[in-house]
Amino acid sequence: MKMVLLYHALVATLGVLVQGVVRFAYTTWIGNTSDVISEVSAVLSLAVYFSLFWPAGAGLAAMRFLPAASVSGPAAGSVMRLLRKSFWVASAAAALVSYPISYYFTGDVAAAAASSFLVVSYGAYTFTRGALLGHAKATHASILDLVTAAVSFGVLLAVTTSGAHWALLLPLGVGYTVYGVLAWPRETGPRLDVAERRQVLSYTGYAIFGLVAAGGLLPAVMLFVQTFDVKAKADLFAAALTLATPANMLAQSLNQVLVQYFSGRAREAARETRRQALVFFVLSVVGFAAIFGALIALAPWLMDLVFPGRYEGGVPTLQVLLAVVAVSSLTAVPGAYMMATGRHRAYSVASFCATVAGIAAMAFMAPVWGLEGAIAGFAVGAVGSAASVAVLAYLVDPRKVQPRSLVEDER
Questions:
Q1: Disulfide-capable partner of 123 in 8, 55, 238, 256 (CB 3.0 to 4.6 Å)?
Q2: DSSP string, 78-90
Q3: Cα atoms in the Cβ-side hemisphere of radius 13 Å centred on 398
C-alpha cells in the first residue's frame, strides 16, 4: 500500500511538471516572438488566482474526501455532486469578474474574452485533476497532461501563424478545456445531509486559505509589477517569472500529491506518517536548496539561452526571485501533512495571515518602488509562511489540535 501511494504521488508530480514545462515553453515562445510577454504573464497570473479561490480548493477536497469515502466518510458520489455544483457557481463568478480586469491588462475586447475563457478553463483543470487524484488515477491524470500539452501547442502554432495576437491565450484555454472535459467527474449520489455538506464545504473553504498562501504570492508580484511599474520592467519580470515557473510548480505539485499520499496513510499509521512527513521535509529542504541554488548560479546563462539578446537586465531579478521561491517552497511538505491530517484550519489560517502580510507589503511598497517593492513584499510573505507552517507541523503537539476523526470536520 505504501509503495502504491508513493507511486501515485510521483506520477502525479510528473504530470504537473509537464504543465510547468508547457507554461514555460508557452511564455518563452511569446517572449521571443512578440512584445506582449508581460500582458500574457499578467493574465496567466490572474487565471491562477481565480482558480485558487474555489476550483483548486474543490480539487483538494476531492483528494481529501474521496479516499476517506472508502473508510467512513461521506459517499464519493454525493461529495462530487456538491463539488461540481460549487465549481460551476465559482466559475460563473470568475468569468464575470475576470473580464474587466483582463480588458485593463490587454486593452482589447477579444483578448479579454480569451483571457476570461482561460480563467474558467484553468479552474476546470485544477478541479478535475484533483478529482482524478482523489480516485487514485494519477497515471490517467498525467497522460491527460501530456495529451493536452500537445493540444495547446498545436493551437498555439495555428494562432501565431495566423497572426491573431488577440488569441495568444486561447491555446492554453483550449488545452485546459480538453482536460476538463475528458477528466470530468460524472459519478453522483444522494444529496449530503447538512452536517456532511458543511464538512465538505468547510474543508474546501479553509483549503482556499492554504492554496492562496501556497500559490498566491508569486502571481501577485506579476500583477503588482504590471500595474505599478513601467512596461520595460514588467517585461523583465515576466521573463524572470517564466524561468522560475517550472521550479515553483514543482513545489506546488509536491504539496498537491502529498495531500493524497498522507490522507491515504494517516488514519492507519498516524505516528509513522508524522515521522515520514518530517523525513520528507528534511529531504525537501536539501532538494530545494540544490535545485534553486543551481538555478541561481546558472541564471545568466539561462536567460541568454531562453531569451537571447532580449532580457539580460532581468538576471538579477531572476536570481532574487528564485531565492524567494525557494523559501516559499518549504511549505510544501508540512502544509500537505497538516491538510491531510485534519489540521487544515491551523495551516490555512497561519499561512494565509503570512500571505496577507506579504500582499499588504506589496501594496505599500510597489506603488513607490515598483518591481523591487513587489519582490520585497513577496519575501515578507514567503518567510512568514514557511516559518509558521513548519513550526505548526513539527513543533506543536498534534494531539492538542487533532480532531476525533480524521474524516470529521475540526471542532
A1: 55
A2: HHHHHHHHHHHHH
A3: 26
